[in-house]
């Protein structure tokens, strides 16, 4: 039986069956008559048989014209139904014309009522055959295929289309047992046999238990609702959340995929509680296309995504500058597969080595430089502070100075929200790098107003999935059965996805004229405890029952919250609502150089104490927290108090 239904019938066989059904229609409509006793008798004569032959011949022509026998019967859909209808309508219209012409010639072919009856019955029989075969096939397949019972969120047209598509698909994975209405529909209503249930957040457990379902499927149009705490309620009830971005993603008539294959488990990125950032600026394409772009830190999470997006904008060639050889090789293979026409150059080197950086500039002469190379891990840099200065400050100086020397069009530096009111060495080192890059730009324009190099800084918070991010750590801890560790229950952070962050970097690089520090609107901050809780629930586990969340205490240099602006800073809007310009204090270039050179010297000598003290003198808002360097803050404060005490008093 399965072989009969699963193999495709020859087209001639389908055509023959369709015409046989037309013949049956004619047989009962043309030949059947009532006798004097009220009994049905069939009048067989050459005249009636010729009329039947003419009807079947006309229908055969129309079947050929509209290809009604081309479709696979077990997959009959709206397109097949339309073909059968238009074929029947055309045949009926043709017979009406022939009958009219015959009447003018004195030939009685068919009556109007006979022609219409034949059309209606033929259409019904042909369509009924197809739907019956489809239903029998679905029942046979579904008897061998256990579908997961699901409830579809919403009762609007898109949700109804989704539910019907899930219900009718062949070899489907899901069986929609209810529509969870958000509009207060009355209990007892249904659509296509699928009951509509009024939404009640407090009775979620009961609703899903009544329908023996543990999965909710919803469209992306309901994501905002989910972000407002609804998702947590479903997850706490042990309900699996599945998402379909949009109903237009699939076409059952044309696609060889089921809609089930477009449904995916909701990710933590989907529940960030903020509006996703989108940008589609043709200026970026015009800026990048056909240019040579160098990306430092190209093997990192931010750098590698910048490589992908720059390649998508059709740069002529991309220089990957990093010291991580294996990830660089992986990027080269990826680019070769996705963008074979773009030249990708691997340049292994450390940005602390100025001569090695110079070789990259000399060899490739980049038009644009995106500087993402940096040490970013707060506790690690707190314990290895000299490396933070040598890479984040000296390394940045090397790359920036040579960008100016070789006439790079734009130099875009990737900074961090930890540079604002820094409480750790890493954050302060990035703030010093910001200061240097900005002061270098203004100094270059003073010395040479025609200098072409624009120095731009972008500053943003944490990115989901990046190296060192909490998300990969939490995933690993959950996979190993926990516990999930957080440093403090009240700690909050700003988050965006890596592609979003890199897209905004390119946008800011496009709009920047030089000297700006662009900050990104990261939306609302996310509580790390809530993030960990959601990730546990998304894994289908119960908090405290299956996996616990454990506080480990703030790490060296860590603070409860991050900021995107200094207390004294203000912002200026740009044409992009998610990008602003920070109005920061500007430093004089020579002052900055005099401050960082001895700082770098102390780093080479390994004298972290003196080095950090110099950092604090240059960036007075840098106050260490949970760090051995808090002692320096106390010393500086005592020195300032002592200086204030000996200051001569002017007597009027």
Q: Under the CATH scheme, which architecture of the largest domain would be assigned?
A: 3-Layer(aba) Sandwich
- Category by helix and strand content: alpha/beta
> Radius of gyration, rounded?
36 Å
Dominant shape: elongated
Number of domains: 3
Total helices: the number is 21
- β-strand amount: 15-25%
Spans of at least 5 consecutive residues whose pLDDT stays below 50 are: 1-6, 34-39, 248-256
Question: What is the CATH C level class of the largest domain, in words?
Answer: Alpha Beta
What does this structure look like?
- The chain is an alpha/beta fold.
- It has 3 domains: 141 residues, no CATH class; 121 residues, NAD(P)-binding Rossmann-like Domain (Rossmann fold, 3-Layer(aba) Sandwich); 253 residues, NAD(P)-binding Rossmann-like Domain (Rossmann fold, 3-Layer(aba) Sandwich), CATH 3.40.50.720.
- It is 48% helix and 16% strand.
- It has 21 helices and 24 strands.
- It has a 9-stranded mixed β-sheet, sandwiched between helices.
- A hairpin with a 2-residue loop joins strand 5 and strand 6.
- The radius of gyration is 36 Å and the shape is elongated.
- The N and C termini lie far apart (112 Å).
- The N terminus is likely disordered.
């Amino acid at each position: 039986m399965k072989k009969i239904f699963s193999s495709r019938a020859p087209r001639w066989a389908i055509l023959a069956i369709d015409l046989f059904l037309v013949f049956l229609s004619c047989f009962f409509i043309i030949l059947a008559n009532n006798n004097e006793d009220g009994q049905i008798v069939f009048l067989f004569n050459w005249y009636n048989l010729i009329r039947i032959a003419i009807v079947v011949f006309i229908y055969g022509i129309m079947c050929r014209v509209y290809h009604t026998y081309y479709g696979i019967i077990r997959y009959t859909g709206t397109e097949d139904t339309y073909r059968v209808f238009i074929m029947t309508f055309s045949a009926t219209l043709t017979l009406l014309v022939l009958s009219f012409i015959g009447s003018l010639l004195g030939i009685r072919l068919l009556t109007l009522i006979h022609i219409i009856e034949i059309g209606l019955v033929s259409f019904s029989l042909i369509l009924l055959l197809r739907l019956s075969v489809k239903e029998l096939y679905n029942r046979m397949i579904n008897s061998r295929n256990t579908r997961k019972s699901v409830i579809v969120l919403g009762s609007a047209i898109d949700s109804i289309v989704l539910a019907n598509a899930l219900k009718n698909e062949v070899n489907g994975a899901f069986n929609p047992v209810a529509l969870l209405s958000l509009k207060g529909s009355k209990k007892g209503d249904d659509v296509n046999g699928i009951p509509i249930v009024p939404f009640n957040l407090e009775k979620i457990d009961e609703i899903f238990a009544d329908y023996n379902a543990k999965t909710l499927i919803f469209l992306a149009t309901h994501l905002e609702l989910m972000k407002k705490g609804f998702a947590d309620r479903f997850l706490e009830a042990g309900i699996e959340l599945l998402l379909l971005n949009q109903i237009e993603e699939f076409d059952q008539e044309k696609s060889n995929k089921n809609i089930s294959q477009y449904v995916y488990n909701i990710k933590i990125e989907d529940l960030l509680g903020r509006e996703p950032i989108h940008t589609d600026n043709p200026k970026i394409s015009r800026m990048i296309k056909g240019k040579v772009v160098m990306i430092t830190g190209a093997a990192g999470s931010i750098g590698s995504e910048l490589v992908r997006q720059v390649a998508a904008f059709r740069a002529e060639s991309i220089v990957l500058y990093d010291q991580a050889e294996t990830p660089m090789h992986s990027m080269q293979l990826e680019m070769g597969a996705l963008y074979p026409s773009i030249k990708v150059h691997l340049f292994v080197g450390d940005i602390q080595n100025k001569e090695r950086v110079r070789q990259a500039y000399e060899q490739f002469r980049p038009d644009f430089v995106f500087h993402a190379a940096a040490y970013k891990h707060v506790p690690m840099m707190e314990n290895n502070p000299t490396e933070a200065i040598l890479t984040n400050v000296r390394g940045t100086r090397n790359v920036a100075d040579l960008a100016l020397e070789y006439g790079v069009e734009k130099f875009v530096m990737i900074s961090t929200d930890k540079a604002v009111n820094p409480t750790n060495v890493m954050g302060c080192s990035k703030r010093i790098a910001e200061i240097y890059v900005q002061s270098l730009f203004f100094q270059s324009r003073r010395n040479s107003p025609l200098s072409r190099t624009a120095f731009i800084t972008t500053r943003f918070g944490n990115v989901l999935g990046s190296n060192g991010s909490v998300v990969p750590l939490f995933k690993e801890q959950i996979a190993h059965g926990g516990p999930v560790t957080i440093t403090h229950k009240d700690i909050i952070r700003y988050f965006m996805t890596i592609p979003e962050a890199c897209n905004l970097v390119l946008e800011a690089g496009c709009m920047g004229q030089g000297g700006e520090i662009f900050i990104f609107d990261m939306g609302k901050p996310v509580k790390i405890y809530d993030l960990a809780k959601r990730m546990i629930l998304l894994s289908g586990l119960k908090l405290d029952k299956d996996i616990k969340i454990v506080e480990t205490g703030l790490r060296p240099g860590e603070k409860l919250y991050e900021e995107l602006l200094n207390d004294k800073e203000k912002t200026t809007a740009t044409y992009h609502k998610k990008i602003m310009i920070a109005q920061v204090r500007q430093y004089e270039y020579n002052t900055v150089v005099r401050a960082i050179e001895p700082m770098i010297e102390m780093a080479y000598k390994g004298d972290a104490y003196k080095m950090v003290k110099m950092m604090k003198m240059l960036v007075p808002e840098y106050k260490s927290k949970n760090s051995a360097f808090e002692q320096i803050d106390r010393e500086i404060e005592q020195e300032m108090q002592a200086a204030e005490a000996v200051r001569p008093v002017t007597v009027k």
